[in-house]
Amino acid sequence: MNHKNIMVDQSDSLELGDKTFHSRLFIGTGKFSSGEALGEVVQASGTQMVTVAMKRANPSGGHDSILSYLKDQDIQILPNTSGVRNAKEAVFVAKMAREALQTNWLKLEIHPDPKYLMPDAGETLLATKELVKEGFTVLPYCHADPVLCKQLEEAGAAAVMPLGSPIGSNKGLESREFLKIIIEQAAVPVVIDAGIGKPSQAAEAFELGADAVLINTAMAVSHDPVRMAKAFRLAVDAGRTGFIAGLGVTSNHAVPSSPLTGFLN
Amino acid sequence: MLVESMTRQDVELALHRKGSGGVQDFAALISPVASQEYLEQMAILSNRLTEQRFGKAIRLFAPLYLSNECNNVCDYCGFSLGNKIPRKTLNPAEIIKEAGALKKKGFEHILLVTGESAQVVDLAYLKEALATLNPYFPNLSIEVQPLHQEEYEILIANGLQSVFVYQETYDRTSYASHHLKGKKRNFDWRLETADRLGRAKIKKIGLGCLYGLTKDWRTDAYFAAHHLSYLEKRYWQTSYSMSFPRLRPCEGETAPAVALNDRDLVQLLCAFRIFSHELELSISTRESSDLREHLLPLGVTTLSAGSKTNPGGYAVEAESLEQFEISDDRSPQEIFKLLQSKGYDPVWKDWDHSYNLADPKTPALSPVENHA
Q: How do residues B308-357 score in pLDDT, each as one tens digit?
């Protein structure tokens, strides 16, 4: 199957940090069966940004099939701090990631709760401030909290990554009302990071005005991850294109011709 | 007995609720009627929940036996004080030799195991072992005698990530009948170990029963689920692991009170997965290679491979007596290839040294510092 034949609107690019992305679909790597399986998904999805957990990465160990695949591709590797419990640990891990993977880019994840992996707002804000000072391009994973997102932006985050629902839950955009406010207020790109479980939910994120989405579980756990990656690619394009085209306003009622102001004519 | 009284309706509701029904639903899932009529449904659900949470990753680790000295008399264990076996405690040079052999095989996660002899394997010994291995292995766990909170804090500062401490059985009468002498006789000291670990802010606590010790194994599992639930609420920053060792032949053993069969083991595995979606579940090399393969899709997240259960077994010497017999004697590389062939991602490394560098003794980042 040729996955390259899906049209991408080259004029609709995403400016993030100091880079331009033509794909608005970011991919997480934690749950695939092998580097080869991930490679096929990367190809099918057309992604240009892939996040890798520092705790899993083994740049010097020779056992890392996922890293060794990504190194040969023209793809932004986005190390993440998954597993840290506070800002202090996050800063250490970020510095090691920068050294090991030769990139300033960082997905900041601080979840002190190993059960639901809920992000810690206070520590995330502290770490963002510190890491921006250290010259990182910081993409913080956070709650769908509009005030926090503005604070992260003011702290110098390159984007904000609010959750749609808990990580890996496939529940979609349960935080929809707050995402709308975040998107309306944001001056940096908004990447919906967690909980998107099916292509239609990714399309919905773009219809709300999101700038990008990050997907892992929905692809990796599918019976056919490559086909699912293609489906997400199509959904991202559909949602984004629809958003640019201008969506109509929804209404529960038919709109009659001016019953209240007709007398003015 | 609560577990025995569970009905079809209870099991169906528990399956429908997929874990949100708490220990009451766990009781239904571990019941005889669940075993008789719902095991396949439980297995399908357990498989789905495990894949959703862990994807295709299976973590690999190896036990490193440091010592078989023990001051306890337990009627099921090869290390028991009365047993006339060659005793061995590795010195630092031997620890490095053994660790080197494991590193060569690819291991990054090591579980240090000892008997319970506080005179030989004391805090200083454990601290030195951890400090020696810390630069080479990003993830170090121990399975040793229960310690005080302050002792755990010292070991954590030296690279300790997780502690496995099995209650063996939650039935006090059965516990007393199997633990005949030594500090392990103290049921409550052992039971409260997980609380001391939680207060010391350990990253992971491993729980488990030794199935076969107590006739009513279903109730034992039910209490293990209660224990887990209690700990999760109190020590919410810690993650948890559950193990299902079955009593196997070893020197000096008494016959198991109950033979937990394979069907029971499958039920335990699936019930715990449905109860806790993020729980680490491991299956030991006590189990046969064939059974381990069949159990893989049912909820397993972690495997040991190529294990030796005698101190010095990998590189130093082979004579000292093992704690229990290994059934799955395949090499780590064989296990690695097998996992790949079945569509799993064998993970040697799931932790990084950089995560251990933030000294817990230094203060947290503060807003004041950042505004400066």
A: 888 888 888 755 566 666 677 788 898 889 998 998 988 888 888 777 77
pLDDT computed for residue A207 by the predictor = 95
In angstroms, what CA-CA distances link B189 with B142, B209, B334, B361?
18, 16, 40, 27
Chain A residues with CB-CB distance to B under 8 A? 30-34, 37, 54-58, 61, 63-64, 83-89, 91-93, 95-97, 112-115, 123, 126-127, 129-130, 168, 170, 216-217, 220-221
For residue B61, give the H/E element and its range.
Answer: strand B57-67
Top pLDDT among B132 and A33 is at B132
Residue of chain B with shortest Cα separation from A55:
B351
Identify all chain A residues contacting B137, using CB atoms and an 8 Å cutoff.
none
Does A119 have pLDDT greater than 80? yes
Question: Cα(first)–Cα(last) distance of chain A, in Å?
Answer: 61
Look at residues A76, A99, A216, A69 and name the one whose alpha carbon lies nearest to residue A159: A76
Instruction: Check: pTM over 0.80? Answer yes or no.
Output: yes
Query: Active-site residues of A: which are they?
Result: 107
Residue A252 burial (CB count, 10 A): 4
Strands A49-53 and A161-162: unpaired
Does the beta-carbon distance from B355 to A84 stay under 8 Å? yes
Whole-number Å distance between alpha carbons of B181 and B81: 9
The residue in chain B having the minimum alpha-carbon distance to the alpha carbon of residue A96 is B354
Q: Tell me, what's the pLDDT at B323?
A: 65
Could you tell me if A38 and A15 are in contact, meaning their C-beta atoms sit under 8 angstroms apart? no
The CA dihedral of B46, A168, A51, A16, to the nearest 10 degrees, is 170
**Residue A64: pLDDT band by 50, 70, 90 thresholds?**
low
Interface of B with A in 98-117 (CB under 8 A): 106, 108
CA B366 remoteness from chain centre = 37
Nearest-CA distance from A151 to chain B in Å?
13
Q: How far apart are CA B183 and CA B190, in angstroms?
A: 9
What would the pLDDT profile of B35-63 be if each residue is shown by its tens digit? 999 999 999 999 999 999 999 899 999 99
Task: Give the minimum alpha-carbon distance from A11 to chain B in angstroms, rounded to a whole number.
Answer: 36
Q: Which of B52, B345, B352 sits opposite A217 (nearest CB)?
A: B52
Instruction: Quickly state the pLDDT bin for B359 (edges 50, 70, 90).
Output: low
